[in-house]
């Protein structure tokens, strides 16, 4: 039985090239303990893969477009491997190489790589899934279904929106002119990340204590969310690094917004997201004031449902040929947004793999042509893990960007004292 890819999934698959691999990463860092048994992990993954049906399917050309079909067999030994690494720098290097390698289209579009053990006893698991297979929320469901040891706590619902509360299509189109003015009517300066892209990748990570991020948000006169705090941390990092190189230009960030609805099949619902574009206020020197400005923008965009309106627009224009391509090109222009910053909720309770507690979870997504920096975050029960992924030829010293994010967080955190 063949199942055509959704238009969104097919478009994502078509973006893959010699320099864009199309997959996202979830990096699990285990607390110190006995080394994972590779064969035991393979057996566990094989036994549980049926709980995520897309994990046993491949993409084929069905003549009228790409389609999902059942793989003749899943060779778990090819999907679950081990790599040596002794310290965090070697770990980042291995992960960078994995992000630069394409997933094999002849196999299901996922891989699980054990990395380490490190000298301090920690070990990492890099889980890659093609973005056509899963977006951020369904990727977390893959972790829950296939990787983490079973636990009693309910996973985050994939459906975050009530389908009965969906606005009518007419109301979406009625407010479309204002949506376009808000989202695409304020281009920034020339993006410093508008550079030619190669297949090379470098990554760096930073942790933000989740409880303290919530406390910083709650301390503001108009409550800021954890996602608002994330945007402020990234914007603060960019201001610090760009000022170091001369000046901080006017820059916008694209913030993905989930459009999943309650009751959807977690493993088969495909990509269901849209976006809003927000100004990063890099001209603002005060980190807390920048947080308030970002929070106000996000609150306003949510109130008027810009993300859903844009989804309706691009869905309608997808079949309109040159006009649709023109509008999509405008939305993807690096002056409309210099980088994307995404955030997904991860496990809300302590989780483990092979008897080892997962201490930290990070995520990383692919940069794109003319967008050589990508920032992505994921939470667990204690931390918000923020991942910076770059083409190192276009954006060198990604570790310094992560260090600047730490400094930006500390500036926000100081307000709690």
Features:
6-stranded mixed β-sheet, alpha+beta, 417 residues, acyltransferase, Chloramphenicol Acetyltransferase, transferase
Structure report:
The protein is globular, with a radius of gyration of 21 Å. The protein is α+β, with helices and mostly antiparallel strands and 417 residues long. α4 links the parallel β5 and β6. It has 2 domains: 145 residues, Chloramphenicol acetyltransferase-like domain (Chloramphenicol Acetyltransferase, 2-Layer Sandwich); 230 residues, 2-Layer Sandwich (Chloramphenicol Acetyltransferase). It is built from 13 helices and 15 strands. The model has no long low-confidence stretch (mean pLDDT 87). 45% of the residues are buried. The strands form 3 sheets. It has a 6-stranded mixed β-sheet with strand order 5-6-7-2-13-12, with helices on both faces. It has a 6-stranded mixed β-sheet with strand order 8-15-14-11-9-10, with helices on both faces.
Q: What radius of gyration results from the CA coordinates? A: 21 Å
Count up the domains: 2
Total strands: 15
Elements, N to C (H/E): EHEHEEHEHEEHHHEHHEEHHHEEEEEH
Instruction: Bin the helical content.
Output: 25-40%
Individual helix count: 13
So what's the CATH class of the largest domain?
Answer: Alpha Beta
Any idea what the CATH superfamily of the largest domain is called? Nonribosomal peptide synthetase, condensation domain
Widest beta sheet: strand line-up: 5-6-7-2-13-12
Largest sheet: 6 strands, mixed
Under the CATH scheme, the architecture of the largest domain is 2-Layer Sandwich
């Amino acid at each position: 039985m063949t199942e055509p890819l959704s238009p969104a999934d097919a478009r994502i698959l078509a973006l893959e090239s010699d320099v864009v691999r199309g997959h996202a990463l979830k990096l699990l860092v285990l607390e110190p303990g006995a080394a994972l048994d590779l064969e035991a992990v393979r057996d566990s993954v094989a036994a549980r893969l049926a709980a995520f049906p897309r994990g046993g399917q491949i993409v084929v050309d069905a003549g009228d477009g790409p389609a999902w079909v059942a793989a003749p067999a899943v060779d778990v030994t090819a999907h679950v491997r081990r790599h040596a690494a002794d310290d965090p720098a070697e770990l980042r290097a291995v992960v960078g190489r994995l992000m630069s390698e394409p997933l094999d289209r002849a196999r299901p579009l996922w891989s699980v790589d054990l990395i380490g053990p490190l000298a301090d006893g920690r070990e990492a698991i890099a889980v890659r899934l093609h973005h056509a297979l899963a977006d951020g929320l369904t990727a977390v469901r893959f972790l829950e279904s296939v990787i983490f040891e079973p636990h009693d706590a309910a996973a985050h619902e994939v459906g975050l929106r009530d389908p009965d509360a969906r606005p009518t299509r007419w109301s979406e189109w009625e407010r479309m002119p204002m949506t376009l003015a808000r989202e695409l009517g304020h281009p920034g300066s020339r993006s410093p990340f508008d550079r030619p892209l190669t297949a090379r990748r470098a990554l760096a990570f930073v942790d933000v204590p989740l409880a303290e991020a919530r406390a910083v948000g709650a301390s503001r006169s108009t409550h800021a969310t954890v996602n608002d705090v994330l945007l402020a941390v990234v914007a603060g990092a960019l201001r610090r690094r760009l000022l170091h190189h001369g000046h901080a230009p006017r820059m916008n960030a694209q913030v993905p917004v989930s459009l999943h609805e309650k009751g959807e099949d977690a493993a088969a619902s495909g990509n269901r997201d849209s976006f809003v574009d927000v100004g990063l206020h890099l001209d603002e020197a005060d980190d807390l004031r920048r947080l308030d400005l970002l929070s106000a923008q996000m609150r306003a965009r949510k109130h008027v449902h810009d993300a859903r309106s844009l989804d309706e627009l691009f869905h309608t224009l997808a079949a309109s040929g040159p006009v649709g391509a023109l509008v999509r090109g405008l939305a993807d222009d690096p002056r409309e947004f210099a980088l994307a910053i995404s955030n997904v909720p991860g496990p809300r309770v302590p989780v483990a793999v092979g008897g080892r507690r997962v201490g930290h979870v990070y995520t990383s997504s692919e940069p794109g042509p003319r967008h050589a920096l990508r920032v992505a975050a994921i939470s667990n029960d204690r931390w918000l893990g923020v991942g910076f992924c770059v083409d190192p030829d276009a954006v060198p010293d990604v570790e310094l960007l992560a260090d600047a994010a730490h400094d930006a967080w500390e500036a926000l955190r100081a307000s709690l004292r």
